[in-house]
């Protein structure tokens, strides 16, 4: 799915928010590596599960023609600073669900980019028959958990000792979900 480009006045900065384009593939490959190096909150160590520009081109194309997927980017002064992706499920038993993730360069945390991406993802999900949106978040990422709860996500489970980081310590993962507005009243 493709959304129209929007200019957003965030907290102390203005950013452009739009669907990813084929031309973004190289920059997305580099951006993903940089973000992986900046935080322990993601599932990957830096360089793991590397996505090449061709891999990103394929994702961008597949998401652009899907009714349940969306790939968004945030840019400031023509520089990509973050991205988000909602991925629906094509299996019959899970076609009502989708999962998402958001990645933003650390220098741009706290400026409202994540809020804007999440709002757009939920709008797309709600308007396209996705009844449940799920995510996994490391328990120590309290800012992200607060953001998700603000948008109606509930904690559905805790995966204990689910991940091990470079420091040799185990961390728990919180499973969160949000039901579409029409289901909340049932």
From TrEMBL:
Going by the UniProt record, its keywords in alphabetical order are: Transferase
InterPro entries per the UniProt record, alphabetical: Acyl_CoA_acyltransferase, GNAT_dom
Question: In the UniProt record, does the keyword Transferase occur?
Answer: yes
Single GO molecular-function term? acyltransferase activity, transferring groups other than amino-acyl groups
Q: Which PROSITE patterns match?
A: GNAT
Looking at the record, the residues that make up the N-acetyltransferase domain are 29-181
Instruction: State the protein's name.
Output: GNAT family N-acetyltransferase
Q: Which CDD domains has this protein been placed in?
A: NAT_SF (cd04301)
Q: Which organism is it from?
A: Clostridium manihotivorum
Query: In which domain of life is the source organism classified?
Result: Bacteria
């Amino acid at each position: 799915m493709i959304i129209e480009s929007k200019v957003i006045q965030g907290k102390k900065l203005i950013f452009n928010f739009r669907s990813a384009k084929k031309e973004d593939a190289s920059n997305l490959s580099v951006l993903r590596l940089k973000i992986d190096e900046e935080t322990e909150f993601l599932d990957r160590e830096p360089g793991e599960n590397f996505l090449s520009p061709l891999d990103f081109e394929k994702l961008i194309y597949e998401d652009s023609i899907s009714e349940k997927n969306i790939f968004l980017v945030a840019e400031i002064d023509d520089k990509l600073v973050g991205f988000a992706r909602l991925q629906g499920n094509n299996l019959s038993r899970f076609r009502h669900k989708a999962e998402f993730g958001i990645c933003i360069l650390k220098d741009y945390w706290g400026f409202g980019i994540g809020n804007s991406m999440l709002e757009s993802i939920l709008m797309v999900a709600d308007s396209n028959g996705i009844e449940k949106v799920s995510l996994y978040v490391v328990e120590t990422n309290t800012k992200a958990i607060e953001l998700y709860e603000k948008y109606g996500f509930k904690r559905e489970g805790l995966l204990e000792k689910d991940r091990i980081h470079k420091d040799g310590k185990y961390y728990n993962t919180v499973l969160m979900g949000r039901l579409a507005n029409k289901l909340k009243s049932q």
